[in-house]
Amino acid sequence: MERGMRAVGGEDGEAMEREFEAKLRLQQPLPGGVAGGKAVQRTNSIAFRAPQEQFTIKDFELGKVFGVGSYSQVVRARKKDTGNVYALKIMDKKFIAKENKVSYVKMERIVLDQLDHPGIIRLCFTFQDTHSLYMALECCEGGELFDQITKKGYLSEDEACFYAAEVVDALEYIHGVGLIHRDIKPENLLLTSDGHIKIADFGSVKPTRDSQLTVLPNSSNEKACTFVGTAAYVPPEVLNSCPATFANDLWALGCTLYQMLSGSSPFKDASEWLIFQRIITRDLKFPEFFSHEARDLIDKLLDTDPSKRPGAGPDGYASVKKHPFFNGVDWKNLRKAPAPRLVLDHDNGADYDSQDATWNLGGAPSAHQHDGNAGATSSSETQSHISRLALIDSFDSRWKEFLEPGEVIVMISKLKKLQKLTNRKVQLILTDKPKLLCMDPSKMTAKANIIWSHSPSELSIQVANSSHFKICTHKKVISFEDAKQQAWQWKKAIEGLQHH
Ligand SMILES: Nc1ncnc2c1ncn2[C@@H]1O[C@H](COP(=O)(O)OP(=O)(O)OP(=O)(O)O)[C@@H](O)[C@H]1O
After folding, report:
1. Domains: count for the chain
2. 302 and 153 both lie in a single domain
3. How many angstroms does the Cα of residue 121 sit away from the middle of ligand 1?
4. Distance between CA 152 and CA 344 in Å, rounded?
5. Does the pLDDT value for residue 126 go beyond 80?
6. Domain that holds residue 319
7. Secondary structure letter of residue 10 according to DSSP
8. Contacts 24+ apart (CB under 8 A), 269-275
């Protein structure tokens, strides 16, 4: 292990490249795999459908950053000669090796290569240079379903039925080829520009023993009982160390459908440990406005007995598809059906251009520009909203170690810190001390030092629209994007503490 890491992580660029080529080797491309209708065996000699090209990053014109994952960033990239646009997933080789993510990268590359379904992100080609691996993916200009839910608050039953049906259709295919996705959640359901779903993020998949896919040797045994995925969507049997089954994804589908209809996931709490307690005891409450059909389907998908979940029984997906919640769905023509309207960033009256990260701050915004949020509410309403947020907007108890005894969190959110070349997921925390912490949630370290001041000339908040704001100190300006559109609440909360 140590030796392998040194070879990859060392200064010798050529050695690094050789190491990765050996790990992600391409043989002569063959038609085949599931996409070609031919089941192939587990082997070390992998024939890729999406070719490994000799391109360089200079062959592309790079646009906006779609997002940043734990070991990659995804950028809009136009191939200069063909004009074709891709979502280019860029991964730093040293970082992947250091973070032990090689198996995730390999798995995603090999699996995506063989999947062929309109509801799954397509891998077009790959290339690499000394420092980075590049995966050119089909572009999803509509962003994440998660963002649509947060922008709309929650979805109508018609909208949720449309999206859930497309997920069911893609999951039926994924399970049909013997794969368990293991990380189904609204963040991994991307939307095309015309509003159709594509499932992404295949780094955590697990092939079953009789999978038709070509996989790396032993990958169906690997991580058999380990917890992968995301706390809020993990089924109880995984917490009890049972091996992964297709039913894991059906539980996550139930959580996702619940989130579409209510705006938040069904098992929510202040820490992962508390979330797990709720999952194990199936502490599930339905909002009153859920229809009987929606409630019944979610209730069945969230059955603690995995074999009873619709889709996991002997009649397969028929029992999901014929559920009354999906009445009227034309399963054969899903992709031809008109999709729900997408709420885009500029629908909020945004003056923010994410393409070149420029701001038009102008004068003070009027109430209607606030999107009906804090700007339209009184300050006491805002304060109570803020303290409610601190409770609801779940925070990990690990953050407590950064607080002094008696110090209380006033507001906390996962945000994107916008930078010139890349965006980073950060946790912004405001305490009653007052103190502003901008933390790296994966490393639990400070990401930016924000020096508190009661003087607006030394610390000020500029809001561009409900999802974009800047914190300005005399030393620096930090730009944030808040998918939950609480930019005005952040301003009110910080200014409220400055006035005390
Ligand atoms: N094909 C795509 N089109 C548009 N945006 C994409 C595409 N693929 C990924 N993204 C965006 O880029 C972000 C980063 O994606 P990536 O696959 O690197 O990591 P992730 O799935 O978010 O996180 P992790 O790897 O930590 O699980 C995603 O949040 C998603 O919003």
Report:
1. 3
2. yes
3. 11
4. 10
5. yes
6. 143-336
7. S
8. 269/394, 270/391, 270/394, 270/395, 270/396, 270/397, 271/394, 271/395, 271/396, 271/397, 271/398, 272/231, 272/396, 273/397, 275/231, 275/232, 275/394
Write down the pTM of the prediction. 0.68
Q: Give the distance, in angstroms, between the CA of residue 430 and the centroid of all CA atoms in the same chain.
A: 24
Least confident of 8-17, 330-339, 401-410: 8-17
* Token pair belonging to 496: 């409220």
Q: Are 123 and 109 in contact (CB under 8 A)?
A: yes
* Residue 180 and residue 328 in one domain: yes
Q: Is residue 362 part of a domain?
A: no
- How far from 253 is each of 163, 295, 476, CA to CA, in Å? 11, 13, 43
Q: Decide if 136 contacts 57 (C-beta within 8 A).
A: no
Per residue in 293-327, pLDDT tens?
Answer: 999 999 999 999 999 999 999 999 999 999 999 99
Q: Are 345 and 354 in contact (CB under 8 A)?
A: yes
Whether residue 89 has its Cβ less than 6 Å from ligand 1: yes
196 three-class SS: coil
pLDDT at 311: 97
In a domain, 66, yes or no: yes
- Residue 166 near ligand 1, beta carbon < 6 Å: no
Q: In angstroms, what is the span from residue 403 Cα to ligand 1's centroid?
A: 32
Active site includes 371?
A: no
Q: What is the DSSP string of 34-99?
A: TTTT------SS---SS-B----GGGEEEEEEEEE-SS-EEEEEEETTT--EEEEEEEEHHHHHHT
